[in-house]
Specification:
two-stranded antiparallel ribbon, 6 helices, alpha/beta, Rossmann fold, NAD(P)H dehydrogenase (Quinone), single chain, 15% strand, NAD(P)H dehydrogenase (quinone) activity, NAD(P)H_dehydrogenase_qn, 28% helix
Length: 233
């Protein structure tokens, strides 16, 4: 089992830094090999100007080899840090992660299929706000809705199995005891990462969507929020 751990935080001594170290250690203790992409320390250029550049090819090879992709980042303005967005923009290229043709129909594979099918994808997210603010009725929206562009629009779109986000909140109130518990919780989560169920997004099939890629009226009738696109919603 091989994991690619993509980390986007400017400070190694931060809470994120402690969790990264604990998480990678936990995976290795459970038999995983781990390749770490430290976007800040590697000086990754996030600006998409040209496709097919040499540094992108190297990152695509690292991604191709992974059974598990972990993206760890602080939640900044309800999204990922710019350097991580840039990594996705540049590395998830057409023909590699998406716009991969179905060998039978020639149509591009997407939403449950694609160039990264068979990989599991886990986000580890830190936020300064309280847990309930990112819950089902929280003012910020449920974390799975906040991260919809990443979970559904990137992971699921390219064929990966998205897992529910591992969210750490109230990061300004973490003392030594809380940190120890957070590290333990993360280790437990990672120990079962191959067995936990994915988020059950609907595949883009004629059974679910019409030719405009809108849900049929018979699918999740009456629902107009994002949960309509989940079989477990």
């Amino acid at each position: 089992m091989h994991a690619l751990w993509v980390w986007a935080h400017p400070h190694t001594s931060s809470l994120n830094g402690h969790l990264r170290e604990a998480g990678i250690t936990a995976l290795r203790e459970n038999g995983w090999s781990v390749d770490e992409v430290d976007l800040y320390r590697e000086g990754f250029d996030p600006l998409l100007v040209e496709t097919g550049e040499e540094d992108v090819r190297r990152h695509q090879e690292r991604l191709r080899e992974a059974d598990l992709v972990v993206m760890q980042f602080p939640l900044w303005w309800y999204s990922v840090p710019a350097v991580l967005k840039g990594w996705i923009d540049r590395v998830f290229e057409s023909g590699f992660a998406y716009d991969v043709p179905d060998p039978e129909t020639g149509k591009p594979l997407k939403y449950g299929k694609g160039g990264l099918v068979g990989k599991r994808a886990l986000t580890i997210v830190t936020a300064g706000d309280r847990a309930d603010s990112l819950g089902p009725r929280g003012i910020s929206g449920h974390i799975e809705d906040v991260l919809w562009p990443l979970l559904h629009g990137t992971f699921w779109y390219t064929g990966m199995d998205p897992l529910r986000p591992h969210l750490i909140t109230e990061t300004g109130d973490v003392d030594t005891d809380v940190l120890a518990q957070l590290e333990t919780d993360l280790a437990v989560r990672l120990k079962g990462v191959t067995d936990e169920p994915r988020i059950e997004y609907l595949p883009m099939t004629d059974d679910h969507y019409d030719h405009t890629i809108k849900l049929h009226p018979s699918v999740a009738p009456g629902k107009e929020d994002l949960s309509a696109h989940r079989s477990d919603g």
